[in-house]
């Protein structure tokens, strides 16, 4: 018969337990209570949310659809207030009494608040959940924050807020940061890296009192009399298992709720998992053991045999630019020896602690590439006598080989790859043999790399080793060889860390080359232009050949020149100027392009500036005809001449072109405006296509007619020309602000979803106006004619790269 299972707490541990139950079709009628007003999310990713590297939506592990499909009754925002173990009932906060056959505790921890005078003032918070994170995110630039606690959580909070421009001071009672995980030398390097991020660090500092004003925090007073003013005070000094409810229910508790190897408490029908648990005298604060407990609890509930075994743990700090790994025990001792490697110039420090030829502890700062291999040595208690001399240089130096994949190939099947989820190499290889070929497949099939993500590189190496040539670097690969960050990461970090120059990007995002390369520089140049139009100075050296030359290079080395004809309209004077230029510079071919412009083909490079000068004099601008920017707006003749036209499509096309020209975009942008659904301007295969209809304007987006042929999709139907222009402008701007460099509009829309674009551009009028305003701000700088600017300069046309030759049109 179906049993009633009540779960208290939708945390990381119970989330994993529920998944196992659902996957194995366990016969339970499940009700899930959570004090937080939401379901399971990846709590460890709150730090990337705080720093702006991820959004909350991206860290949700189980959404409403999953609970519905799994038949779980959710009572979020509801706390369990009491348990009657004799009657086997729980009482919810609102007084509802529910019966259970089995009950699982997953109540996690409470952050410890030092009972300093003033700890209950408004503005004194912990760092535990989304509400705390939101409080920190709500602080504006220039606000002051004090973080008490220089451990993992405190430092992630500090770095996250500093990335948002908040003035942060970390107060730590010990002599160096993260003293439980790091030795002094690594602690020093970490401190220096944080100071470089603008964070003030005070070690050996004792907090005395929290000072307030009108009930709100004002400053932290240290016992040496120093006052540190603050608008918010974050206490991150440790956690205590949340055992109140269990104690009141009469369960056996110590520091946490006592459980046996099967995760059963002192009551045979009640189990407990996660940070609220005490197992063999130990309590837990990292997810790896909690996930093991969760699996064991699920198996116990299903009547299967399983036992929880405690394993060695490791720590990584999730602060961009602070590569830090620590595992095992590195306290000093008579039988212990150290191997230390320092490279001060690179800020690299590695220390191994050995005891009886076994590695018992490891601390790495600055280069953590081989940390998993060392962690395996610690966990497996491997005898390292034979490799002692080269041990510190990592797996690549063992056996004289320097192939980075060799170390991964040599790992045994039971070597742990993903610490959070306890996934070993063998499970990943099994998934690959079962058909997985991408990181996403591995994540979905095994959960490896699905939590804190620090093992992603290693999982990819296992893929590469197992699949050989069949392994294709995933689409979300890094920008280029100069960084491990993806385009999306870089875009987010440029915004969240306020990086406003190329140097700031190379430095802050730890580029491995001094000035980037021909792949990343155009992208970074574009991102900086798009995000900081007023502050950033465009770098012509970081542009592709067509943009640098303001003309398109052709197969014989000559160039094509395409003067702008707004909306495809021209005049006899313009035609004369074009004809004169064609004569004067011996242009061999004059061609009408598909975008309704006249293309002068076969121009010699040395003639370009003079020719631009002549065309400029005749009032013609261009220079963007082959740019990653607005190309042309194709129009039909519309109401002026056509019997069918419903609106002035030519006029609208001209307005749009005059508005949008000059803006830089992730890739080229083409528009079309047709005066009626007969669509003579072929608007439905453009990046933005507008069809005029009796009732107004249909604005559709994400079309293409190149290597991929796509019909546009309807974004909005609007009654007025003003709205059609506003929707178009807002769409271009949201594409400019979000897309990966060199992603065409249709590719970007496929990634983010048209519904999201509609929400931002069509439904949210305030956001639409803000996007238009930001576009106009950018255009105040960039709506200029590069021909005019460069017409006088005959030199400096060396391309950075000619990788992106555009097809001649
Ligand atoms: C900012 C941050 C960063 C972290 N980074 C890392 C990291 O990098 N690596 C790592 O391994 N670990 C990290 N951790 C620790 C990790 O998140 C925890 O170990 C893990 O979330 C604990 O899981 P849990 O299921 O035991 O409890 P939780 O995830 O805390 O879930 C407990 C849930 O129970 C609910 N609850 C409590 N009482 C009741 C009640 N009476 N009724 C109903 N619901 C109740 C709570 O509201 C809560 O939602 C981090 C933690 C934080 C806060
Ligand atoms: S699209 Fe309609 S209005 Fe425009 S030219 Fe063709 S038939 Fe005429």
UniProtKB/TrEMBL annotation:
Q: Where is the Nitrite/sulphite reductase 4Fe-4S domain?
A: 628-767
UniProt pathway annotation: Nitrogen metabolism; nitrate reduction (assimilation)
Tell me one GO biological process term.
Answer: nitrate assimilation
The cofactor binding remark recorded in the entry reads: Binds 1 siroheme per subunit. Binds 1 [4Fe-4S] cluster per subunit.
Binding of siroheme, residues: 680
Q: Which residues form the FAD/NAD(P)-binding domain?
A: 4-297
Annotated keywords: 2Fe-2S, 4Fe-4S, FAD, Flavoprotein, Heme, Iron, Iron-sulfur, Metal-binding, Nitrate assimilation, Oxidoreductase
Q: Which cofactor does it need?
A: FAD; [2Fe-2S] cluster; siroheme; [4Fe-4S] cluster
Q: Where is the NADH-rubredoxin oxidoreductase C-terminal domain?
A: 314-382
Where in this chain does the record put each BFD-like [2Fe-2S]-binding domain?
417-464, 479-529
- Write out the GO MF terms: 2 iron, 2 sulfur cluster binding; 4 iron, 4 sulfur cluster binding; flavin adenine dinucleotide binding; heme binding; metal ion binding; NADP binding; nitrite reductase activity
- Tell me what this protein is called: Nitrite reductase large subunit NirB
Organism field: Sulfitobacter albidus
The gene from which this protein is expressed is nirB
